[in-house]
Specification:
Length: 376
């Protein structure tokens, strides 16, 4: 198949998932065309079946807001026609689903070809940004105009039905992880640099937006470090980082925390970590938590959104109400101070991640694509 994938090229989960999907499809001999404004972060090696088409947005003094969506739709048309694409798979509704609708119309009017559009909803395109009145009519329309709609969790599917007038079926295809990539032994030298006295290593990775409640991560760690010798690694960057740095100074734990910024090699970092913290107010899925589990790192998380679909309370980690720092701290301390329990949870986390392995989920997407290719 010749598949066009449209996504955000950044570190965010939707872009990561879309890129990993494209790479997996290319490995299965499909031809994959990424259409986006920058080389996707995880598209970091050459593959004969992968093509990257950059969306250029020419500027002009009149444009206070350069029209990205127009540039994207026009690039989609070019790529569809020049490469004889069979379908477009867009990740994150805004503005990808509406640009795809426009591209589909143009291709049909000019060539009579009907290009199927599949829209995968990822989370904030529905729960935060999409719900905004400014965007909602276009989001509703373009989702309904998609030939197939998928959501990355049952929770997100339900949220979408609650927030928008959706007339079509939304299919749940959970996010996936390439388990084999994350099953690796930690590099001792690396661990010694972070935790020179054999301390436990806690980890959080995100885009440091408000929704992640980074201050809760810092406050949990402040409790843990009182009871268990430990260090905290904070991976990623974003608007809440300065506040987290200030809070860790205020709580006198700045020296025990490393703010390492954006990192591509998450598997190296996870391999030396003992516990993953995800304190979000909402996660449609929580891909970062799944990657942690694949590496055998148990997860202390909130019970928001789709997190209970992956993190099993009392088995792969613990779930608490949003903002319940004492509960999350207690769970973290209990787990880190009981080696037998920690080892069991590590095994459970790996076993749970196997259910979301790339080899199970990618064929589900292929089957979905095939449905559209076989319809005359
Ligand atoms: O977490 C973010 O804020 C980034 C966002 C994105 O669009 O990249 O992540 C969303 O999509 C991921 C992949 O499907 C999910 O794992 C995240 O849970 C989801 N984020 C939210 O729902 C807040």
């Amino acid at each position: 198949m010749r598949i066009g994938i449209v996504c955000y090229p950044t570190f965010g989960g939707s872009g990561v998932l879309a890129t990993e999907l494209g790479k997996a499809l290319a490995d299965k001999d499909h031809q994959v065309h990424f259409i986006t404004y920058q080389q996707p972060v995880r598209l970091n090696e050459f593959h004969a079946n992968i093509f990257y088409h950059e969306v250029r947005v020419p500027t002009y003094p009149l444009f206070d807001y350069p029209p990205y969506e127009t540039a994207l739709a026009s690039t989609m048309v070019d790529v569809i026609l020049n490469n004889h694409l069979d379908l477009l798979h867009v990740h994150y509704a805004i503005p990808h689903a509406s640009a795809a609708f426009m591209a589909k119309q143009i291709v049909y009017k000019t060539t009579g070809k009907k290009i199927p559009v599949i829209t995968t909803l990822h989370g904030t395109d529905i729960t935060l940004v999409g719900r905004d009145k400014t965007y909602a009519p276009v989001v509703t329309f373009s989702i309904n105009e998609s030939d197939a709609i998928t959501a990355v969790s049952s929770n997100l599917r339900d949220e979408t039905y609650r927030s928008f007038q959706i007339e079509k079926e939304i299919e749940v295809i959970h996010n996936f992880v390439d388990v084999s990539r994350f099953r690796r032994k930690g590099i001792d030298a690396f661990r010694r640099v972070i935790a020179p006295h054999g301390e436990r290593i806690l980890l959080h990775a995100s885009n440091f937006r408000k929704i992640k409640r980074i201050e809760d991560v810092v406050r949990i760690f402040a409790q843990v470090v009182k009871q268990v010798p430990s260090k905290l690694l904070l991976v990623g960057d974003g608007p809440e980082r300065p506040a987290a740095e200030d809070l860790s100074k205020e709580l006198g734990i700045f020296e025990d925390i490393r703010f390492v910024g954006k990192q591509e090699q998450m598997e190296e970092i996870l391999a030396i970590s003992d516990l993953f913290l995800l304190t979000s107010e909402y996660e449609s899925f929580g891909l970062a938590a799944l990657e942690a589990m694949a590496a055998g790192v148990p997860v202390i998380s909130t019970n928001a959104g789709g997190l209970p679909e992956i993190n099993i309370h009392g088995q792969t980690g613990f779930l608490s109400n949003v903002g319940d720092v004492p509960d999350m701290s207690r769970h973290a301390i209990d787990l880190l101070s009981n080696k037998a329990m920690l080892d069991t949870f590590k095994e459970n986390a790996m076993a749970q991640s196997d259910r979301f392995d790339i080899h199970h989920i990618v064929p589900v997407y292929e089957a979905l694509y095939n449905r559209f290719l076989t319809v005359p």
